[in-house]
Amino acid sequence: MLLEYRVTNFFSFKETTNVSFKLPSNCPKDMSYGKTYSNILCVKGKNASGKTNLLKALSFLAEFCTDSFSKKPDEEILLDNFYDSEEDTEFFIEFMDDTVLFQYELILNKNNIVRETIYRKGQRKTKIIERKGNKLTSIISELKSLKLMKLRQNVSLISTAKQYDLGNIQSVKSIYTFFKSFMSNVNYHGLKSYVPDLNLLCQLFYEESDSRLFDFVKEIIISCDMGVKNIEIIKHESDLDEIRYVPLFTHEADGVEHKISYHTESSGTKSLFTQLARYKLILDTGGVLCLDEFDINLHPQILPLLIDLFLNPKKNYNDAQLIFTTHNSDIMDLLGKYRVYIVEKQSNESFAYRLDEIPGDILRNDRSISHVYNTGKIGGQPRL
User: Fold this and answer.
1) What is the pLDDT of residues 59-90, one digit of tens each?
2) What's the pLDDT score for residue 195?
């Protein structure tokens, strides 16, 4: 469960910026569901304000902590600081694994890791391991086997431990599993063009034994009233022994059923068909889904249905989380001021704040947030 993260000197964020899923004690119970944290955060702001960079911080940490060992020993760490600042970039992230709280801190630059520290808190907070440069400077006894590792200047402790087959140590396993549970459509270059291999996706749907994933996708698409009555996957074998898996969408017109190919379906239907598997996988694993512009090609009325997958405890039984950016303003009324961040930029420097941090009573639980937002009184609006 992701609780909070901070980033300093990362892309357009010069000063420390904090993003928190924690909910205050005065958050209404119909928003908190009795929890002290949220399962969803929305990030709003004008174009080029830095919204995507806020998600890049999470995708960078997830990839760095799980996959950085795959980098070559002399390979540069792929990150940008604030306009070539000579200061190091800093990250902090706090999360829960069952009843144990972990805090991970990372200071680095393009050439090397300066410091990497992990704290664990059960009954009390303990620094369980710390490295400075390529040396372990602090380590508790239960992690002593990690001393066998040879650290590299561009590789995380967690990724290194996994490669040394030391990833089954409970604390290391918890941290690795947490970061491995992230799924994002953002990387160093920004929004990834997520176009999955349609044949592989359909093969997955066709071959799964219980149809759990495919049934989830079909149910949502059909419920969105797009004229789709059913979806099926057909297996085709050519004379060249080439196997293709093809989706067919059933529509009914004048009492007659017509089967339509994927390529002639609407952009919205195709977008849902290719994206919904990610939602289901995250819901099943209790992971964190980071989506930039998550409403691309989708009708605004479909968005609450997707958000409800994370807000509804009966659907989100593993406490999965979603953080996303969007230009849709009505979402703010659905989520309320405790689950919406605004990203602004001044003098090309980004900063972010949660709506409940705005002083005064301009935002109230019984008033429309989108109306106030559209007037430009709370920021995040372009100057036209």
Assistant:
1) 999 999 999 999 999 999 999 999 978 999 99
2) 62
Q: What residues have CB less than 8 Å from 228, skipping those under 6 apart?
A: 221, 222, 249, 250, 251, 269
The span from the CA of 243 to the CA of 239, in Å, is 10
Torsional class of 192: left (φ above 0), alpha (ψ -120 to 50), beta (otherwise)? beta
Q: Give 304-316 as a DSSP string.
A: HHHHHHHH-TTT-
Cα-Cα-Cα-Cα dihedral sign, residues 263, 267, 269, 272: positive
Count Cβ neighbours within 10 Å for each residue of 70-81 and write b for 16 or more, e otherwise.
Answer: ebeeeeebebbb
Strands 321-325 and 288-291: parallel
* 243-263 per-position pLDDT tens digit: 999 999 999 888 899 999 999
Count CA within 13 A, CB hemisphere, residue 34: 2
Q: CB within 8 A of 97, min separation 6: which ones? A: 1, 174, 175, 177, 178
Instruction: Find the helix packing angle between 267-285 and 212-223, rounded to 10°.
Output: 130
* Residue among 319, 381, 307, 309 at smallest CA distance from 344: 381
Of 344, 316, 322, nearest to 335 by C-alpha is 322
Mind listing the pLDDT tens digit for each residue in 110-138? 999 999 999 999 888 999 999 999 999 99
Torsion angle defined by CA atoms of residues 177, 178, 181 and 184, in that order, rounded to the nearest 10 degrees: -140
Measure CA of the first residue to CA of the last residue in the chain; give whole Å.
40
DSSP string, 22-55: B--TTS-HHHHTT-SB-SEEEEE--TTSSHHHHH
**Whole-angstrom distance, CA of residue 42 vs CA of residue 120:** 28
What is the pLDDT, as a whole number, of residue 135?
A: 96
Angle at 118 between CA 117 and CA 124, to 5 degrees: 130
Nearest residue to 325 via CA among 18, 50, 64: 50
- Closest Cα partner for 225 from 318, 125, 301? 301
C-beta separation of 40 from 1 below 8 A: no
Instruction: Give the pair of three-digit tokens for residue 298.
Output: 């989708």
How is the chain split among helix, strand and coil, in percent rounded to 5? Answer: 35, 30, 35
DSSP states of 327-347 as a string?
S-STHHHHH-GGGEEEEEEET
